[in-house]
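Lab manual, section 2.4: Encoding a predicted structure.

Procedure: take the sequence of the chain (731 residues), apply the prediction step described in section 2.3, and record the output as structure tokens. A sample record is shown.
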Amino acid sequence: MAAKSSHSQNLFLTRALEKILSERELRRSQHQELRKACETALKEIKVELKKPSTSSSPEVLVVADKYYQPFELACRCSVPRITITALDCLQKLIANGALRGNQPDPDNPDKRLIDRIINTICSCFVGVQTDEGVELQIIKALLTILTAGTVEVHGATVLQAVRSCYNIFLASRNIINQVTAKACLTQILTTLYQKMELEVSGETAARNGSAVGSSDQPLTPADTTSTRHDSEVVDGKLEEVASELVERVLAKVVRETRERGEGEEGSGRADEDKPEDPHPITSSITHDDTSSLNQSDIVGTPSRNHQGGSGGHHFRSPLQKDCYMVFRSLCRLSMKGVSDIHDVRSHELRSKILSLELIASILQNGGEVFKAEEVFIGAVKQYLCVALSKNGVSSVPQVVELSLSIFLALFQTFKIHLKMQIEVFFKEIFLNILESATSSFQHKWLVLEALGRVCNDSQHVVDIYLNYDCDLSLFNIFEHVIGELSKIAQGRQPMELGATTHQEKMLRVKGLDCLVSILKCMVEWSRAHYIDPATTGLNTVRVIRADEKETAPGQSVANDVVDSGTGGDGDERGVAAGGWRHGSLSGKLGVGTGGGEGEVGARVEEFETRKKRKEKMQQGIQLFGTKPKKGVKFLQENGLLGDTPDNVAQLFHSDNRLDKAAVGDYLGESDDYCKAVMYAYIDQMDFTGMDFVAALRLLLSKFRLPGEAQKIDRLMEKFAGRYCETNTKYV
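Recorded output:
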């Protein structure tokens, strides 16, 4: 087996060099260096093959890494035919395991040869003027390298390979190359994240089996031979898989492109009342788009604030860091703005759509490591959620649809970590689009489709109600969604100008479907917990606690609800860092044996009390907006706010639902209690190290100045005293 593999690799390397040497253009004088390099390499290979073999290795294996220079020169050649031949040979050498590039680069010992190989391959792409055949060979070579098991690539080299495929998709005039580049990117990312999952699972299995499989007996020669043989068999299989993978991807791309072309020729005009299918992003690409690429639009281009850094995160392995860097780069790409004229052929829009599609594929195929590791959870919060907040309100329906699909994937998998982000998404995107009269029919339809998927899961509905509507300081998502769906179902929602009657009817039916789904979910969820007192004793209800049944990532988390504090004493907005927290309702209510009646009743009563207290809080906030003193008194009488001035001041700082003008009027009042609140309010602010204008802006960002001069004087006098107190060195 080893002899056969070595012979085939040596034969292929020789034929690859001879194929380059046989090119007609190589006879020209400008290619003299390339011709000499090929001839020298062939002579050295023949000399090495004539060397006598040792008993341990019956076949002399010529490693292609030593003879890489001819291929590098051929790739840098300006003749597309020679470049295509060189790239094809490199791809096949890597697929066959003859070229691995694991040793240091002779010209740069700090890097490995594989980094130089990828850099050479990527440099063959020079923009829109690149030959179509060269583009295709670049894609094939990069796909083979990043999916082969015999080659190990990490760091900036991975980003460079992804960047090249990304640029080919944007700049190529050949639709087959565009679709191939997109399929290549998807396959590379899938393989990258699968390797990360397998790496962690392999480490876990090794730790678990180390104690069982440990042995003090040394390996015998037979064992060593068997191990080497198994390794060669595995390498051979990996090479075959890599080659088959490349051919399969290319065949699939060609087939899909032909089918799409036939479908476009035979399709008629689409129904204007139905939202268009935004998935095929290459159907509108023409050969006239020759605008050059901007380097800032490319994956992996370091910014001034993030050059080569990973934010100080700790990674398990280089592979995990690669996955993180690629994910972060895609999120940044999706945040880039587009021009006001939304040309579907523009690089900006196509780049945004491609990045969102790749992010969606990562979320759909992500394993347990991606869902549980802190570095990826942090990346989702810091980059992806920001990208979704920008793209969710885009005027391009395709961008909105992709953003909504990504949000649904996050809601299914990461909701225990994204409590505050989910609130913002529902409030600023879902409800904002449905309530706006300027939102198009297509945008509203996409939002209703997304809401319908959320409403079809009974546990999602319960989770939303318990974690938001029963939280003292958060937005009533469930209540507002029900209210807006009711308006849509009754035809009372604002519609854009020019909307047809049929479109309005479709929205009404869709809104009604969502309401029916919510009712079905509520019935389904409560049916499992209903106890008929006429047929069952009161002692048969118990609570299945969270520690009795572990909640898997993405599973229902009805028990992860934040405890509500009273007034300014409890900082419920601290959940922003920790997401959904445990401790208020334990698991699902189920039927079982034994006691638990009192505990179940206490949990249910606790949530009823929370909801009533939140309603009282909303009444107090509403009253505060018209009559500030009465509003504060109402909150204090209902136990929602402490009696001390510090409690009131802390409420003014923490609750952004309070009317800013009313806060300013209250702080400027002349009675002793309001003055004490004003003093406590300003004393709770820290102006240390701030210049006077910045400190004044910070103060006025929390409330609006009252109109009376006396109130302003009192506020400014206290502010001046506090500023001087915290900045003694500068005053």
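Check your result against the sample. The radius of gyration is 33 Å.
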